[in-house]
């Protein structure tokens, strides 16, 4: 069995990461454009042609969806079938996202696997955190007009006696 993958620890809650994994608009910002297949519930077309390690667009079928913990897709691309799994696990600092792709059928040259795994790592460690930070900022900014500030700077008293005026 051939398997590639990437993992990243993120300082964001699982719900925010789940949203970035499942919202087509957000997915397009950090991974690739996605379109639901017309008349085929649970089927997606991932526009991956031209991305490092991909030969063509990926026809994907959601086989498991447990919000906000797991998403599994059965993928077909250029005569190859793979199983792509995304697991979101809470941590003390936020969550861990693990992405694994396992070959079911067809050829998967070593060079292509290496480039694809590097692409996953780059997307998870670079573009995804930027989108998550952007979402976090929006959540705070959207609360701006709903009353007092969402965060206030703490008042800290100086230690020791106050300096004397000259």
Main attributes?
single chain; 166 residues; alpha+beta; Alpha-D-Glucose-1,6-Bisphosphate, Chain A, domain 4; 7-stranded antiparallel sheet; 7 strands; globular
General description of the model:
With 166 residues, the chain is of the alpha+beta class. It has one domain (3-142): START domain (Alpha-D-Glucose-1,6-Bisphosphate, Chain A, domain 4), CATH 3.30.530. 30% of the residues lie in helices and 34% in strands. The chain is built from 3 helices and 7 strands. A 7-stranded antiparallel β-sheet has the order 1-7-6-5-4-3-2. The longest helix has 33 residues, at 110-142. The protein is globular and about 55 Å long.
Shape descriptor: globular
Q: What is the total tally of β strands?
A: 7
The CATH H-level homologous superfamily:
START domain
* Backbone structural class: alpha+beta
What distance lies between the first and last C-alpha atoms, to the nearest angstrom?
79 Å
- Counting H and I runs of at least 4 residues, what is the number of helices? 3
H/E series:
EHHEEEEEEH
Q: What's the rounded overall pLDDT mean?
A: 88
Fraction of residues in helix: 25-40%
Instruction: Enter the CATH topology name.
Output: Alpha-D-Glucose-1,6-Bisphosphate, Chain A, domain 4
Strand content: 25-35%
The second-level CATH architecture is: 2-Layer Sandwich
Nearest-angstrom radius of gyration? Answer: 21 Å
What is the CATH top level name?
Alpha Beta
